[in-house]
Amino acid sequence: xxxxxxxxxxxxxxxxxxxxxxxxxxxxxxxxxxxxxxxxxxxxxxxxxxxxxxxxxxxxxxxxxxxxxxxxxxxxxxxxxxxxxxxxxxxxxxxxxxxxxxxxxxxxxxxxxxxxxxxxxxxxxxxxxxxxxxxxxxxxxxxxxxxxxxxxxxxxxxxxxxxxxxxxxxxxxxxxxxxxxxxxxxxxxxxxxxxxxxxxxxxxxxxxxxxxxxxxx
Amino acid sequence: xxxxxxxxxxxxxxxxxxxxxxxxxxxxxxxxxxxxxxxxxxxxxxxxxxxxxxxxxxxxxxxxxxxxxxxxxxxxxxxxxxxxxxxxxxxxxxxxxxxxxxxxxxxxxxxxxxxxxxxxxxxxxxxxxxxxxxxxxxxxxxxxxxxxxxxxxxxxxxxxxxxxxxxxxxxxxxxxxxxxxxxxxxxxxxxxxxxxxxxxxxxxxxxxxxxxxxxxx
Amino acid sequence: xxxxxxxxxxxxxxxxxxxxxxxxxxxxxxxxxxxxxxxxxxxxxxxxxxxxxxxxxxxxxxxxxxxxxxxxxxxxxxxxxxxxxxxxxxxxxxxxxxxxxxxxxxxxxxxxxxxxxxxxxxxxxxxxxxxxxxxxxxxxxxxxxxxxxxxxxxxxxxxxxxxxxxxxxxxxxxxxxxxxxxxxxxxxxxxxxxxxxxxxxxxxxxxxxxxxxxxxxxxxxxxxxxxxxxx
Amino acid sequence: xxxxxxxxxxxxxxxxxxxxxxxxxxxxxxxxxxxxxxxxxxxxxxxxxxxxxxxxxxxxxxxxxxxxxxxxxxxxxxxxxxxxxxxxxxxxxxxxxxxxxxxxxxxxxxxxxxxxxxxxxxxxxxxxxxxxxxxxxxxxxxxxxxxxxxxxxxxxxxxxxxxxxxxxxxxxxxxxxxxxxxxxxxxxxxxxxxxxxxxxxxxxxxxxxxxxxxxxxxxxxxxxxxxxxxx
Lengths: 217, 217, 231, 231
Hints:
heterotetramer, A: alpha/beta, Glutaconate Coenzyme A-transferase, three-stranded mixed β-sheet, 14 strands, 16% helix, C: alpha/beta, eight-stranded mixed β-sheet, three-stranded antiparallel β-sheet, 6 helices, globular, CoA_transf_BS (chains C, D)
């Protein structure tokens, strides 16, 4: 997958953010987003215990005790705060994080997400994925439309283990933006030169066209 | 009840403390104890969120935002810490307080305590009593042997509502010290010139004499 | 500063019948100015969750005098004669909760936890009707989370983002209440620039705080007093 | 200072089969010196509760190499190849817990709470066999408290009483773990006089801490490195 496509996804998701929102960014594509939040006062929450996460510091300011949830050195913005893991997940589970942007393995057409385990493979990591799925006010999925070998990720039904009963609110891929409403999936934007027929072919999930606002970018 | 008798009780209880213990003192007689903890490094815990509570400050240093659980101005000792109510009761309920000294209305011969409500009267306060009864490592009851009108407080069975199933470890009155072991009550010291027969008369609870160490002070 | 609210606009945020979480231990760490506004607002049928109802005629005690309350949930009301009277006459409902259970239930409300099992109150009148479960080391009762419509808290300082620190034991229930209501309003002595409070020292991060109001009280001799009117 | 412990005496406090709570997020906020002592102690059948097992050959990863572990309880082991291998070969038991549930379960262990109801993991494999209950806003599962025999935590500074503060996000699981074990040992960079850390800034009050050990590592370029031996 090209870095350009990943950046397109990051950029599009950044447009969703509103001033003063608390945002939690997962691993993968979501980590690209901070570069594209321009002119918006949002605050990045990191589940290892930081609100107000800033960019990667210069080498001389690196401190392995100031890192992101991806375990990379970060800095703190003005007005940042530090707290322990139980308070950090109090924020997540208690609905105090406005938007979580998560990568995924699969999403089904109701918005149920599978983003932690592949059947038949070793399942040795879940991290904060299930807490974010259960607790964030709005969940946006950032994902390539299909996996590297072309296997669809947006499905009628999950075949991988679910991350929770809570449904996601939006999916952004390199080709399209989908919204969920009452467990139904709507195509609201096309982001590439793909035709609607081609999109349908790589998207087993059933979705409706949101005629009011379908945008081709 | 005479202040001298109350002081005798406070003094005797202070003898129980050991270096480095965390102590929580309830209202009433327990509040007298700090004056009699001499030469011992103990730390007073106050359930409104303070470890390392110090004595009443001079008037000029009074701050109504630095008070005891009895809502009286206090000071902080060197090395004191401040925390919120949920963390304070985490300490209490989680067994991190070594000794709680509590007043009482009644105690029965198994060590069950009733210290919050009188039947037929308005029951509008419980405070931290039940949390301390459930959670402190050791519970010492500080009480006059009978109520003001001579009604016994140390009973075969409680007639007032229980404060919890957890049994207390020791009772100190102006006349005697009792210890509990396996829900049995033992007289271990006599603190006044009362005879053993007179003591029995004002103590409906059944107790054994701890012959090994019964002391008359 | 986006979150700054004028005291006179505060009571517009409260509706009849709201459940309010009000910080403080007696009169310590209590949002006295916000309470005063409610007392003169004519709001009705409020439920207050607070450790006490202030003192007679003071702090939350004022709401008893001005008739705003339907119910109080807390741990200790005995020392406020007005509360005892109102309850005796059937004018005030009271729900008594052990102090530690109260603090923890509010924290759960803020933490997305439905309920928790505690040994506190097992075998007492306050456990009646509550679900009981046996764990490795004995019996526990289920206590459910407490949430509010609005939390009124008192802090020492806010920064311009709404991060809060507290004055000594004035901290008490305030930080947990800040997590557990749909709308959180902090009364503070002072507002400082963002960055003046170090990240490690912030007790309540700004994501919990919706509005900040500067107190009308002044601290004299260690006690909050109403300032002499200046007109 | 009464609580000061020499590093070389530390492993005497650990027994075969103990359950250890070990602070840290990856290698951040991790008691590296204490872990090194265990790795050379020959202790067997330890259970470690920690978010990760460090990295391959680093931090808690060393205990995999030296064969001290029977079981790991945590949220994310995928990035440590040794953990994956040991598990595949049946040499290591793994219990996977969502990160927020892990933090909260440990806090409950310290707080005298038997268990709590969370929405996290409802409807997933990780909820299998767990008690479920419906509250006002949906289904929750019961997660039980986690306690340890010994907690090994990493702080920035201790004062002479054992009060602790942490360095930035090195705080992570350390404060909750400090509450939830029978014996709590804090590895610190520095010991200061009691009173130097202000009461409001203490994160872990001394009543939780049994022993303090000064780290053998030094921080260079923002990373802990083993000092050059001086002999």
